[in-house]
Design goal:
Elements (H helix, E strand, L loop, with lengths): L3 E7 L2 H14 L7 E6 L3 E4 L16 E3 L6 E4 L3 E9 H4 L3 H18 L13 E3 L2 E11 L2 E9 L32 H16 L10
Parallel strand pairs: 1-2, 3-4
Antiparallel strand pairs: 2-6, 3-5, 6-9, 7-8, 8-9
Protein name: Octanoyltransferase
Keywords: Acyltransferase, Cytoplasm, Transferase
Pathway: Protein modification; protein lipoylation via endogenous pathway; protein N(6)-(lipoyl)lysine from octanoyl-[acyl-carrier-protein]: step 1/2
Amino acid sequence: MTRQVRQLGVADYEPTWRAMQAFTDTRTANTPDELWVVEHPPVYTLGMAGKEEHLLRHTNIPLVRTDRGGQVTYHGPGQLVVYLMIDFKRLGVGVRELVRRIENAIIATLADYGIQANGDVNAPGVYVDGAKIASLGLRIKGGAVYHGLSLNVDMDLAPFGWINPCGYAGLKVTQLRELGVVATVDEVAARLLPELERAIDAPVAVPQAD
């Protein structure tokens, strides 16, 4: 089934989140999957089990309590956000496998820029030399996935210093610009999206009999 890519440009977080919910609530077994590409104005988002104690100082950056997994993270201009509006049942893989596939797509994209990155089975996301460059947060409802990933491209990283990113005190955060890559969010999206498509559509591994 064809997967549509929607380019949302710069859009406020909360209306985009509400649109994701509406899309998921009204989709049917025949609804094509979509990938939403967006940048958000500065905003902190806190997952369902998120604790406000991970906000280390008061700022004028708005905080939105949302319905994804995970703790607190920051979104802002210069960060690529891709929301994966996917029929989870149709995909036929488990949650951990889907997370691994998304991480692998990001890792492959970074490798294309000459950057060696890795995932972490205990802390979803993608890391370069221990510093987090991409975050993941998903919600599964009615057999469908929404929310998605954020990849730091060329942004002001200071607001990450005012939180415990993803609930981890002292976690370092990095971005493509700090790693020597000069690229726009759109240019990085053009590289990441095909990798995401390939990863999502990869055949499901069949266990081999002993």
